[in-house]
C-alpha cells in the first residue's frame, strides 16, 4: 500500500513540475523588449506655435536597431515605420513639411526598411440588398469622405518608456472641393508598445515590440439622407517597401482560442511582398493584422459585435495624387519603384441592422515589422488544460495501482498458517 502512495505522490510531483515548466516556457518564449521615447512636433517651436499641428515621433530602441514610428494628422492621417541603426536621428524641415513638400522629412542615416499606411477614405455605401459587401454597390450608391477634410483635434497624449498613446478626434467634415458638410466624428487611437502582450483595448489584439495599434471609431457620423441602408468601409493606402509588381498577401487564419476576443476565432494577416533580391524571404517585411470584428457600441461586448469584410488588395497607379496630401509624400517624394496598393475593409454583416441601428462602428488593426505574432494559449488556459487532462490520468493510475495491490496474494499470512 505504501508503495502505491509513494508512486502516486511521485507522479503528482512530476505532473506539477511539468505543468510549471510548460507555463514558464509559454511566458518566456518571447522576451525581446524595446525602450520607447517620443516627441510631439519635434523641434517645431515657433513654426508650430498657434497652429493645429500633431505629428508624433516614436522611437522604439532595441539592442541592435531602432524602430521609428511617425503618427501624423496634417492632411490625411498616416503612419510611417522606419527601421534604422540605433544612432539615427529624424530631421524635419517644418515649413516645407507643413506645406507637404517632398523630401521635407528624412533620417540622418538611410533606413534599412520603411513602410507607410495612409487612412485614406471613409466610403459610405447604400446596402440596399443587405449583403454587407461594398463591391455590389454601384457609383450611385456610394459616397466618399476624405479624411483630410475633417478638423483634427488632439484629445489626449500619454508618453512613457513602456507605452505611448495618442487619441485624436476628427469633426466638422467639410469637403471644400464639393462643398459637402457632415456632422459626427471619427476617433483614432494610436498605441505604441515595448514588448509582446495583448492590448487592453477590445478586441485585445496581440502586439509585439515591433508594432503599433490603430483603433478607429465612427461615432454618429452623418449618413447620406438618400441612403436607406448605409454602411461604411475604410480604405487604406499602403506605401513603401516590397516588390511593387506583386500584390500583398492576405491570409485569414483560424485560431483555437477566443479567450481574449470571445466568439472570434479568426485573425486576418496582410503581408507585404518581398523585394526581388530577397529570394522570397518574408521575414524582413511589414504586415497588417486584425480580427474581423467591429463593435456597434462603446461597451464592445459579444452582443454588440458584428463582422468585417476585407477585399483583395489593388494596385494604385497615380502615385503623386494618391499620396500628395500626406506625410508619406514628405518622406518618399516622387520616388518610383515603390509598393503602392489600396486595401478596403467594410464594417458590418448581413442582418445586423446597418449603421443606423446604433450610429457607432469600430475597427482595430496592427501595423508592424517582421513576422506577425501568433496567438497562443495563455498561462491560465495552459494550466486549466493541463489540470483537466492530468488529474483524470493521475486518478486512473492511482486507482489501478490500488486495485492491483489489493488483488495481490497475501503471502505472509499463508506462511504463518502453514506453520
Model description:
The chain is of the alpha+beta class and 419 residues long. The protein has two domains: 2-29 and 381-418, no CATH class; 41-369, Beta-galactosidase, Chain A, domain 5. It contains six helices and 25 strands. It has helices at 2-28, 94-98, 319-323, 327-332, 379-406, 411-418, and strands spanning 35-40, 55-61, 66-72, 78-84, 90-92, 105-107, 113-126, 142-146, 151-159, 163-171, 173-175, 180-182, 185-193, 197-198, 206-207, 211-219, 230-240, 249-254, 266-271, 286-290, 293-295, 305-310, 314-315, 339-347, 360-369. Strands 1, 2, 3, 4, 7, 8, 17, 21, 22, 23 and 24 form an eleven-stranded antiparallel β-sheet that branches. It has an eight-stranded antiparallel β-sheet with strand order 9-10-13-16-25-20-19-18, with no helix packed on it. The chain has a two-stranded antiparallel ribbon with strand order 5-6. A hairpin with a 3-residue loop joins strand 9 (151-159) and strand 10 (163-171). Helix 1 packs antiparallel against helix 5. The longest helix is centred in the C-terminal third of the chain and has 28 residues, at 379-406. The protein is globular and about 95 Å long. The two termini are 26 Å apart. Mean pLDDT is 86; it is low at 1-30 and 415-419.
Amino acid at each position: 500500500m505504501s508503495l502505491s502512495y509513494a508512486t502516486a505522490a511521485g507522479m503528482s510531483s512530476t505532473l506539477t513540475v511539468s505543468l510549471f515548466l510548460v507555463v514558464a516556457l509559454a511566458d518566456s518564449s518571447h522576451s525581446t523588449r524595446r525602450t520607447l521615447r517620443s516627441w510631439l512636433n519635434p523641434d517645431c517651436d515657433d513654426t508650430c506655435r498657434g497652429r493645429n499641428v500633431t505629428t508624433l515621433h516614436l522611437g522604439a530602441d532595441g539592442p541592435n536597431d531602432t524602430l521609428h514610428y511617425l503618427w501624423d494628422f496634417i492632411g490625411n492621417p498616416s503612419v510611417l515605420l522606419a527601421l534604422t541603426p540605433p544612432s539615427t536621428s529624424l530631421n524635419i524641415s517644418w515649413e516645407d513639411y507643413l506645406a507637404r513638400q517632398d523630401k521635407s522629412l528624412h533620417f540622418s542615416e538611410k533606413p534599412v526598411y520603411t513602410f507607410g499606411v495612409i487612412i485614406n477614405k471613409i466610403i459610405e455605401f447604400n446596402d440596399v440588398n443587405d449583403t454587407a459587401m461594398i463591391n455590389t454597390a454601384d457609383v450611385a450608391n456610394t459616397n466618399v469622405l476624405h479624411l483630410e477634410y475633417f478638423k483634427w483635434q488632439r484629445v489626449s497624449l500619454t508618453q512613457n518608456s513602456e507605452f505611448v498613446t495618442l487619441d485624436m478626434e476628427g469633426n466638422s467634415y467639410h469637403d471644400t472641393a464639393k462643398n459637402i458638410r457632415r456632422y459626427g466624428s471619427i476617433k483614432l487611437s494610436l498605441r505604441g508598445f515595448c514588448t509582446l502582450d495583448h492590448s487592453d483595448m477590445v478586441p485585445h489584439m496581440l502586439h509585439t515590440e515591433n508594432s503599433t495599434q490603430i483603433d478607429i471609431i465612427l461615432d454618429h457620423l452623418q449618413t447620406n439622407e438618400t441612403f436607406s441602408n448605409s454602411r461604411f468601409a475604410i480604405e487604406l493606402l499602403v506605401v513603401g517597401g516590397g516588390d511593387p509588381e506583386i500584390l500583398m498577401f492576405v491570409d485569414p487564419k483560424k485560431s483555437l482560442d477566443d479567450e481574449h476576443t470571445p466568439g472570434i476565432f479568426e485573425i486576418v494577416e496582410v503581408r507585404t511582398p518581398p523585394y526581388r533580391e530577397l529570394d522570397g524571404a518574408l521575414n524582413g517585411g511589414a504586415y497588417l493584422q486584425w480580427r474581423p470584428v467591429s463593435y456597434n457600441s462603446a461597451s464592445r461586448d459579444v452582443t454588440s459585435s458584428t463582422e468585417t469584410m476585407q477585399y483583395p488588395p489593388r494596385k494604385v497607379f497615380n502615385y503623386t495624387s494618391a499620396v500628395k496630401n500626406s506625410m508619406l509624400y514628405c518622406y518618399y517624394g516622387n520616388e518610383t519603384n515603390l509598393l503602392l496598393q489600396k486595401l478596403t475593409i467594410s464594417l458590418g454583416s448581413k442582418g445586423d441592422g446597418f449603421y443606423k441601428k446604433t450610429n457607432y462602428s469600430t475597427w482595430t488593426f496592427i501595423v508592424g515589422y517582421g513576422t506577425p505574432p501568433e496567438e497562443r494559449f495563455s498561462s491560465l488556459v495552459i494550466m486549466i488544460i493541463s489540470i483537466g487532462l492530468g488529474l483524470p490520468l493521475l486518478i486512473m493510475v492511482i486507482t489501478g495501482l490500488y486495485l492491483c495491490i489489493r488483488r495481490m496474494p497475501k503471502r505472509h499470512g499463508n506462511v504463518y498458517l502453514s506453520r
